[in-house]
Design a protein that fits this description.
Strand content: 15-25%
Distance between the termini: 40 Å
Number of strands: 4
Radius of gyration: 14 Å
Largest sheet: 4 strands, antiparallel
Structural class: alpha+beta
Number of helices: 3
C-alpha cells in the first residue's frame, strides 16, 4: 500500500491577541523565522514557538507582512508568568 502524507499549512497569521499582537504581529503576516530557524510550515512554527515559550525568553521573529515587506520584531515570551498556560498567551 502506498500512503501519501498530508501537506502542512503555511504559517500565515489570522487574528492576533496577547503577546503576538503586542509584538506587532498582524492578520495576513507570514512567519518566516524564529531566532534564525526557518519556519516553512505551521507545524515547525508551533514547535519553535512552544520551545521558546517554555524557556520564557524573548526571541526575534522574522515575518513577511501582507504587503510583502519583511521585518524582524521581538516576541516578548519572557512576559509569560510562571505556571501560566503558554498556549493562551500566544
Amino acid at each position: 500500500m502506498f500512503v501519501v502524507g498530508k501537506p502542512d499549512y503555511l504559517p500565515n497569521v489570522g487574528a492576533t491577541t496577547g503577546l503576538a499582537a503586542e509584538a506587532g504581529i498582524a492578520r495576513g503576516d507570514r512567519l518566516l523565522a524564529l531566532d534564525g530557524e526557518a519556519l516553512p510550515t505551521w507545524t515547525q512554527a508551533q514547535i519553535a514557538l512552544v520551545r521558546a515559550a517554555l524557556a520564557r525568553r524573548d526571541v526575534p521573529l522574522t515575518i513577511r507582512e501582507a504587503d510583502g515587506d519583511e521585518r524582524t520584531l521581538v516576541l516578548p515570551l519572557s512576559k509569560i508568568p510562571e505556571g501560566h498556560d503558554e498556549r493562551a498567551a500566544l
